[in-house]
Amino acid sequence: MCSTDISKGSFSPCNKNSQWGITWEKQKNAYLQETNCEFLIVCVGRLSPEKGTDELIKILPLLKGCTLWLVGDGPHRPSLEVLAKEQKSPVRFLGYQKGEALHAVYAVADCFVCPSLTETFGQTVNEALASQVRVALPNVPVFEEAYSHVVPNDAFWEPLNRKAMAAAIIKQLKRHRDGDSFGVPDLSKLKTWSEVCEDLAVEYKKASSGHRGLSPINIITFLLWFLVTILASLFIFYLAAIRTLFGGSVRVYISTVPNRVQNKMKNFKQ
Q1: Domain residue spans in the chain?
Q2: Distance between CA 61 and CA 83 in Å, rounded?
Q3: Class of the 13-193 domain?
Q4: Residue 100's CB: how many other CB atoms inside 10 A?
Q5: Which residues, at least 6 apart from 202, have a Cβ–Cβ distance to it below 8 Å?
Q6: 174: left (phi over 0), alpha (psi -120 to 50) or beta
Q7: How far is the C-alpha of 168 from the C-alpha of 128, rounded, in Å?
Q8: Can you give the pTM of this predicted structure?
Q9: What is the CA radius of gyration of the chain?
Q10: How do residues 32-61 score in pLDDT, each as one tens digit?
């Protein structure tokens, strides 16, 4: 297994003090005051059905005193806006962000939530952890394997269980409010890309240390396989060429020969 990690230089808790961080912090405080809320939840990702963003919006009534910022865009955005409006939930759609604006928006969050159940890795989770933001995730294999060493067990929720989802998020937010260090990502556990590549190179060396050369049987088998593959490819190619000459089907061509001969005879007689 190859670990995948983050460029700590781009995503860092220090981004909260950047120009964009100060801007986001002002907007956060104004939005919390406007909505009479205490916490800001941030979710970053494409707004499409498979990301499960609608589930996050649907549990907002269970998260008293919480607002939600959705960073990203996609085909599901109009329906999500309608859902948030129908629920009268405090949701702000920030649209697509990039560069320093994206780096800093993580840093001002009180909790980062990724509701998707179908991620292959979840890079946005990695970016939130590198920003030293508390994270809450569904307990699916990909997240458990990649992030269980950084995220507390009780910050994972049972998939498709809205009450469990709300409970996991509330636990992380209470820790944030109480100043409890438990659940704050440990940056020392995150590696840079260069460190990961060095570790991978060591693994390759270990794996190749017992390498043995090919035996004569292996060589003969490979040559036979190669020859058969080439012959099969040529056979398929020429068969396709023959079918093309006969209009796509030899059977249809032969079956229509009598009709074509009869039509030619009629033309000859005329």
Answers
A1: 13-193, 216-269
A2: 12
A3: alpha beta
A4: 14
A5: none
A6: alpha
A7: 17
A8: 0.71
A9: 30
A10: 999 999 999 999 999 999 999 999 999 999
